[in-house]
Amino acid sequence: MTSAVPSEREVLLDEAGRPAAEYVQGQSHDGPWADALRTISGHPGSTVPLLLDRLPGWAVTTDENLAADLLLAGARSVRYAHHYGWDLALRRPDSDWAAPTLPARLRLVAASTMSAQDLAATRQTAYRPGHPDHGADRATGSVGRLQGLLDGTRYGALLDCSAVVLEGTQVVAAVTVNRHDGTPSRRGPWFTDVFRDPLPRYSGLGTLLLQWVLAHAAEAGETEVGLSVTEGNPARLIFERIGFLHTESTRTVVLP
């Protein structure tokens, strides 16, 4: 899913004028998007009929239980995601991560020195057919999406810890981190993309870039960093092995 810098939370009222649900409104490739939708405590009855009536055709990101009810009511599943965080104030990254040793043929540069066109081909190769994110808007190699990450218009400002690994002039891996201005559980430094060329000789570069970001974010005074990963993406095991902690899981559906 995608969103420009989101607005404040919107409140959905039922027919009696009672607050029933709240969400952050955004825009996805499917149309209007109700992100981080949650029912309001104390509201009687199910909010499913209300959502179907008030938000037809909308993408909705919510907890697994409400999403399951919406799927039973005819919604279409778009993404099942797991969210992770790293509290830099409680767990300082290994200092060695800030200065990784790369093979002689590779070098690391700031992502801000690259263009969206520079990154697009490698990104599309990374999200090849068979990858769980292949075909999603974040996985198309879209120059427009990458440009939005680099110039800060998609989620928020690109942070200096964003980096690219080059072999000569060829991009072989990259990570972008933006200051996400979204919902409270996904606000602050956020991994908005990380990918590498799938050739075996580049194995390990994803881990290296994740660790690079953590070390440099800590040095810059950041207190936490977050990310999300699609169900079935093997990178989830890498995130957990490095030390990211699971915070929540959500499902995005499109209402009929």
TrEMBL record:
Matching InterPro entries: Acyl_CoA_acyltransferase (IPR016181), GNAT_dom (IPR000182)
Gene Ontology MF annotations: acyltransferase activity, transferring groups other than amino-acyl groups
PROSITE patterns noted in UniProt: GNAT (PS51186)
Pfam families reported for this sequence: Acetyltransf_1
Boundaries of every N-acetyltransferase domain copy: 106-256
CDD domains: NAT_SF
Protein name in UniProt: N-acetyltransferase domain-containing protein
Species the sequence originates in: Streptomyces phaeofaciens
